[in-house]
Amino acid sequence: MNKKRKSPLWMLVPMGVIIVVLSIVLIVITLKSGNQKSEAVSASQVQNKESENRGKESVKESKSGSKDIKDAAGAEPGETDTGPAEIYVSSDIPQKVKDKVKSMSLEQKAAQLFFVTPEDITQVDAATVAGEDTKKAYEQYPVGGIVYFSRNIQGPEQLSGMLAKTQDYAEEIAGVPVFLGVDEEGGEVSRVAGNKNFSVTEYESMRAIGDSKDTSQAYDVGKTLASYLKELGFNIDFAPNADVITNSGNTVIGDRSFGEDPQLVADMASQVVKGLQDNGVSACLKHFPGHGGTIEDSHEGRAYTDKTLEEMEEKELLPFKEGIKADPDFIMAGHISIPKSLGDNTPASLSEKVLTGLLRDRYGYDGIIITDALNMKAVSGVYSPAEASVKAILAGADMLLMPDDFRAAYNGVLEAVEEGDLSEERIDASVERILRLKMEKYL
To answer: How many whole angstroms separate alpha carbon 330 and alpha carbon 285?
Structure first.
């Protein structure tokens, strides 16, 4: 009978050990592989987080104002100028102004953003008096400013009476003054001095003042303009012109400019600002970032410059950089297209990169930014009144001058807030700057 042979004990033990050892080895390898994958994922997450933080720091640095004009006013050419600006809130708003703004309805605040003609609110053909119709119109639309043209100006008594009544209505209805403005540059654009019924100083042109190289003459211009404008009842003059003529083909500015020398224009414009404001009338530097290098007239259509903002800083922008030191109450944004910097044909007046990125963040201007007239074809030929108004506010403008259809523009602003395209906080920031000036200087 055959017997089954048993394996010796010394052979069974090593086999068990080998199995155990192999199992341990496999477990260790598996754990090590898992740790390596985890470490790789963790490292990737850290790297991504660091990259994200660097991106945030870069954006923050750009918002705080960089010395590189491309950072302040926009990125590389080809990038379109889209998206709203961060809300620029002035830091020195008096409490009484904040309290007044809080007490106002959205409709009242929206109305303060508009600077329109008397005809825009009264719907008459040519306003030359301010009576009950004006009062009723202002009750419905308590606008922030009213601008007057030659058709509204007949003589000293008529004009001063109309302005006085309008101001009385505004203070009674809104509790704050209304800006009463006029284009009185001295020279060709002079709504008052150009009327033969007024015995006031007339100037040949601002170019003639610039040619004198005497800045004291520029101060005297501002002082003289303010003396008769204030007496008549105006509190803002849409002057001086700070455009530098850098294109000999420019005709829209011409001898309204002090000349071709950027520093001379800067010095002259600054002195006019001081002359006006030292004598009780707010000044308005115009047309930021400079209209002297264009050939086209923005009244008739788009006006372009072939320069970048970086190139404009050498000449066109200098009078504004220097002029800000004179603390002008207003700066007017022109409708100049700067495609090489903005990447498209967006007018400067509707550009966040120009108004907020450059004028606010880089140059530190804290006064009121007002658009040039929005009924000019450079804007009205492309955008609806509502669209242009909302774009300008989102870009950083505080006041909207003469939209093509005031009521459509006003309703468009209200609808933008209702639909969430424009925040009430953004409107509040502008109304605070507007009321700060009104309550500190003119109430």
So the answer is: 6
Tokens of 424: 């009430």
Q: Just list the catalytic residues.
A: 299, 372
User: Distance of CA 70 to CAs 73, 261, 341, Å?
Assistant: 5, 24, 8
Output the six-digit token pair for 258. Answer: 């002090």
Assess contact for 169 and 135: CB atoms under 8 A.
yes
pTM (two decimals): 0.82
Phi, psi of 381 (to 5 degrees): -80, -5
Phi, psi of 300 (to 5 degrees): -100, -20
Indicate the burial class of 28 (C-beta count within 10 angstroms; 0-12, 13-18, 19 or more).
exposed
Whole-angstrom distance, CA of residue 145 vs CA of residue 27: 81
Q: Give the SS3 label for residue 326.
A: helix
Q: Contact 237/283 with Cβ under 8 angstroms?
A: yes
Alpha-carbon gap, residue 179 to 74, rounded angstroms: 33
Q: Report d(CA 303, CA 382) in Å as an integer.
A: 13
DSSP code, position 349: G
Per-residue model confidence as pLDDT tens digits over 336-387: 999 999 999 999 999 999 999 999 999 999 999 999 999 999 999 999 999 9
Q: Considering only CA atoms, which of 322, 212, 221, 329 is closest in space to residue 267?
A: 322
